[in-house]
Backbone:
């Protein structure tokens, strides 16, 4: 199996995981980056306040997302880009929570993506003082990028996984996870509770 996956990164407007305001996506085929894209998102209603702390980190403001697609409006494009790929993200639990919580906030069906975490992989494959993405990416040979730009972060994450796979001699994500001693997990989507009706 080839080293195929999609790296993903979200930026959020505030402390709510549902408050996605930007996404970056990078497609890898056979260990080579073949496509990348990203866009701004209007966070779901009730999760759309922009905190100063978040804006200071990524530079995105409420004015920037005026006219951007809503979570629901952009979800089909996200799903189309990812296809059947395993998703990869740095601190993947956060990014998968964004997908799940944003879908919950909007009532959209959450895709049950399988995913792997480049942060977990890096901790097993590299010996570093810090495992923040800029330090890990530099170790992977991807030193200069616009940290907290969603597409740039996804690209950095992709390069980390490509380099880690080379170091452990893995040909695909499953082999990389096994070689690094980490798991390929899956977003757990709760089923709607059954509704029963009493018969008079």
Residues:
């Amino acid at each position: 199996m080839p080293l195929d996956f999609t790296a993903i990164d979200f930026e959020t407007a505030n402390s709510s995981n549902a408050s996605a305001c930007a996404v970056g996506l990078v497609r890898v085929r056979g260990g080579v980056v073949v496509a990348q894209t990203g866009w701004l998102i209007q966070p779901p209603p009730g999760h759309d306040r922009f905190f100063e702390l978040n804006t200071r980190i990524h530079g995105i403001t409420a004015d920037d997302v005026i006219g951007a697609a809503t979570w629901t409006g952009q979800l089909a494009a996200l799903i189309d880009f990812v296809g059947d790929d395993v998703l990869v993200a740095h601190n993947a639990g956060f990014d998968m929570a964004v997908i799940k919580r944003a879908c919950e906030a909007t009532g959209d069906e959450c895709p049950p993506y399988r995913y792997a975490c480049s942060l977990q992989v890096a901790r097993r494959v590299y010996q570093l003082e810090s495992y923040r993405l800029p330090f890990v990416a530099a170790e992977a040979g991807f030193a200069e990028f616009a940290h907290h730009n969603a597409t740039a972060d996804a690209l950095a994450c992709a390069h980390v996984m490509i380099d880690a796979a080379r170091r452990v001699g893995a040909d695909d994500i499953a082999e990389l996870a096994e070689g690094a001693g980490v798991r390929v997990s899956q977003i757990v989507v709760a089923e709607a509770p059954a509704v029963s009706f009493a018969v008079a």
User: Anything to note?
Assistant: The domain at 5-186 is CATH 3.30.420.10 (Nucleotidyltransferase; domain 5). Residues 150-168 form the longest helix (19 residues).
